[in-house]
Amino acid sequence: MNTTFNSFLGTGWAFPPAFDNRTGTVELVSDLEDIKESLNILLSTSLGERVMQPNYGCDLNDYMFESLSTGVIGIIKHHVENSILYYEPRIVAESVDVTADDSTDLIEGRFTITVVYTIPGTNSRFNYVYDYYINEASGHV
Predict the structure, then answer these.
(1) Is the peptide bond before 16 cis (omega within 30 degrees of 0)?
(2) Phi, psi of 45 (to 5 degrees)
């Protein structure tokens, strides 16, 4: 089965990468799904993590256990907005909101980032929600 993607919004590897043993190919995503996966990778990458692109990412780990004061929220928004501006040219971020998880006082280092964005090529508006917290079992985000 040879599937050809002809999306002007882009086509890339699915994340996490998955392979089809029958065809010997990698699974691909396209259009809106490719943008969502790109945003997820961008927000979950620390600065310096990519050797060839040391400025790629958001460095959200630095704010893991910070109290979400107005200043910290402003810094997180700034990091997210700049990362999208420089590394996701297919979209325009209209707003970025950062909110603390109010479900329990026992969970530290948990917040939600909501990005409202427009895809200029289609003039379509979407939301992307990124839940940021430490995975207690593994110690990873």
Answers:
(1) yes
(2) -100, 135
